[in-house]
Design brief:
This protein is mainly beta. It is built from one helix and nine strands; from the N terminus they run αβββββββββ. Strands 2, 4, 5, 7, 8 and 9 form a six-stranded mixed β-sheet that branches. Strand 4 and strand 5 form a beta hairpin. The N and C termini lie far apart (88 Å).
């Protein structure tokens, strides 16, 4: 009789453990807009990203930081590769790549600091991210990528 009770209790416990377990899925970040600033990049954090003075105008040679506003940092992301490019018309002037481990646990948005070109004009900065997940997505993927984002910078 004791064996039956112990067996039934174990079976109920096992059933509850399996039935009550929610699956774990990776989720991509949700981004807002690209923003430019000439302020110190160490001031750019997720909780203060909306307070950073935005500017799409700078002087030649200025140190400019472009960052992607983060609305939701995502979940279960092992690694992200952020690709940045600075263009004048269709020619790439500069580019940067930043690899971040566990970006969903960072306190900073994706960002890139570069020196503004010496020649006045309108430039375009683009951003795209690729992700490796530590859990699959609901669709079963173990990697993904963001949309491509762009914003215009005016060098006076």
């Amino acid at each position: 009789m004791q064996k039956k009770v112990l067996f039934m209790a174990s079976l109920v416990l096992l059933f509850c453990t399996v039935a009550c377990h929610e699956p774990i899925y990776s989720e991509q970040p949700v981004y807002g807009n690209l923003r430019f600033t000439t302020e110190d990049p160490s001031k750019i954090t997720l909780d203060k990203q909306g307070e950073i003075g935005k500017s799409s105008i700078c002087n030649p040679g200025d140190s400019v930081t472009v960052f992607m506003q983060v609305q939701y940092p995502g979940d279960y992301i092992t690694e992200a590769d952020y690709a940045w490019k600075l263009y004048v018309t269709s020619d790439s002037v500069a580019s940067g790549s930043v690899k971040v481990i566990a970006p969903h646990k960072q306190n900073t948005p994706p960002m890139w600091t570069f020196k503004a070109p010496e020649m006045s004009g309108k430039y375009t900065v683009t951003f795209k991210a690729k992700y490796d997940y530590s859990a699959q997505t609901e669709a079963g993927q173990i990697y993904g990528e963001s949309s491509s984002y762009s914003a215009e910078l005016n060098v006076k």
